[in-house]
Structure to design on (714 residues):
């Protein structure tokens, strides 16, 4: 039985970091080879890799390259050099919490007496990959089990193999449920303005033999009205202590429409995205990006000069619209403050590990 | 006092039909001159002009050109020739009901004894323009009066001067309300997949000195959640006897979100868009256009080969989500079968005149 899981966007091969260039997808499948930590930092900065877990993994491998360089340059006093390189890697994407989390984790494996730091960091990077994959597989099982009747699913943005070590979060649930025959059709919103749905989600599902139907984001409520959608399945950048969800702009629109039409609304995110220190979603600052991303397409100006644009990256979906929050630590049904506290008390979520997966 | 109304996309100048080329907007302001009825038909077919009322007006002027040609070719037996040219014009856009309505109206002004058919048809074309403008002005007054407290408005697609003889339907209400100080800010959804909001609505509002903020369609509910929107104001392609509204895809999404957030939802459409012969919106066949419109941008392929797309042109908004239907014949508040029948009984709406404005 196929498990619809072939894509690994971040690889360590022949002592090099290999990154699937997500900027070239879906037109071209191109791999960027990083043989130095500076090259890895540049690739992260240039968004060759995207998706918080995938960025963290790329940085963890970048640290291996940095260790090798530091050892070659200063075999007996490599640590300060390596620390400098880790800082450089950590600055590659200012708001990517997973990046700095992965580098902190790498840093903790080292002291000046470590005999072969590159080997130590390589093992740790592989551990991060294995843990991420295992968490995604576990979320896939838990989320798919909620789909008790076959039906259509709708997803948003890209939460798949491309955004993680592999398999994905929301898209992992879709992979699992598809494999188990619980899904009749996968719909994906194109996800303006960056079109991750059209470019990346469609590509990776088709790579793995899962058919997909794209739609304009604004068509989703009409699709739901037709009865074609049983579950909306999305990821999360951050989940707060009351179960509110910050995720890609457009998520809230789907949650409102799902509730209106009796479709289930499932949020799939690693435990590390749960930040129990934040009381509710409105405590999250929503980043607004430059208007130009909306005013042009493929570098071609669409809107007239003088037009302004409101271009938030995320929106907040109140917990009351969430039917199920799926993490590798378990499912919270209809999350609220109490349900969240019961599930995540003492698991360390939101403490040592990053929000923002 | 400025009335924020300078754009006339279809003009009759020096015995020629002049069409503002909407395909070139907002980058270039280019006029296409049509000196023959064949050229007018071609321009309509090529979508130089869009928006049902504007298409009807272009066809009405095209009929003038046809009459001139028929008279020149066969001064004593011009009518059969003219009828053939009208048929050619009528076939330029198969689903544009206003086009055939305008041509039927022109045909009715003629018989074989008409001494100067071109002059007769020119007067009739100008009457169609004057009536459309007057209806739009009247809707502007009626719709603006509903905005009793200043606030933000959100619109969708293009329902403005560019789609009509001038002033517009929903955008006419926005013009009127802006002039009266009832609007603090105009938001426009970009309107995927054709981007009429980003390309056309933003252009015409800025031309007339009304500032506009664009957003991704999927961001509208998050904007409403922030309290920035007091009214959603949209047009309609067709309104049925129970008050259901067929309009550009994405309209229903806005209606659902508006109700969720207590924003008003106003539909502005000429009386001729009300089709009292259709019992409800689900009796309307929703045209789905080719997937390619979603899978590519500016001719550049975005989605991977093998991806399918669902690309409906319109969606249906149930009457229950409509707070006010504004026509030049008056306002129906919270439309339902009874309210619609009371307002539109005996007005001839939906009979001799077209749906599909």
């Amino acid at each position: 039985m196929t498990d619809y899981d072939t894509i690994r966007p971040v690889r360590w091969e022949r002592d090099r970091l290999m990154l699937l260039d997500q900027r070239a997808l879906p037109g071209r499948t191109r791999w960027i080879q990083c043989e130095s930590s500076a090259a890895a930092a540049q690739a992260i900065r240039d968004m060759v890799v995207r998706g918080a877990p995938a960025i963290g993994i790329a940085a963890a491998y970048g640290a291996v390259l940095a260790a090798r360089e530091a050892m070659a340059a200063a075999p007996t006093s490599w640590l300060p050099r390596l620390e400098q390189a880790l800082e450089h890697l950590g600055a590659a994407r200012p708001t990517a919490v997973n990046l700095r989390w992965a580098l902190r984790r790498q840093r903790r494996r080292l002291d000046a007496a470590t005999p072969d730091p590159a080997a130590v960091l390589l093992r740790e990077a592989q551990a991060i990959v294995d843990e991420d994959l295992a968490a995604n597989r576990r979320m896939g099982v838990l989320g798919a089990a909620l789909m008790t009747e076959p039906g259509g699913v709708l997803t948003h943005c890209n939460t798949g193999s491309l955004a993680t070590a592999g398999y994905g979060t929301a898209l992992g649930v879709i992979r699992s449920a598809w494999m188990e025959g619980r899904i009749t059709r996968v719909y994906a919103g194109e996800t303006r303005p960056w079109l991750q749905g059209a470019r990346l989600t469609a590509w990776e599902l088709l790579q793995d033999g899962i058919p997909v139907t794209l739609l304009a984001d604004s068509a989703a409520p009409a699709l739901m009205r037709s009865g074609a959608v049983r579950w909306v399945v999305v990821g999360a950048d951050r989940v707060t202590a009351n179960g509110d969800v910050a995720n890609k702009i457009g998520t809230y629109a789907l949650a409102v429409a799902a509730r209106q039409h009796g479709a289930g609304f499932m949020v799939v995110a690693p435990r590390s995205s749960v930040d129990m220190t934040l009381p509710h979603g409105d405590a999250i600052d929503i980043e607004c990006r430059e208007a130009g991303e909306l005013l042009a397409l493929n570098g071609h100006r669409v809107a007239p000069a003088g037009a302004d644009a409101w271009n938030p990256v995320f929106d907040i979906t109140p917990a009351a619209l969430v039917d199920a929050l799926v993490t590798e630590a378990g499912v919270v049904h209809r999350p609220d403050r109490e349900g969240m506290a019961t599930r995540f008390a003492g698991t360390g979520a939101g403490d040592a590990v990053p929000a923002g997966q």
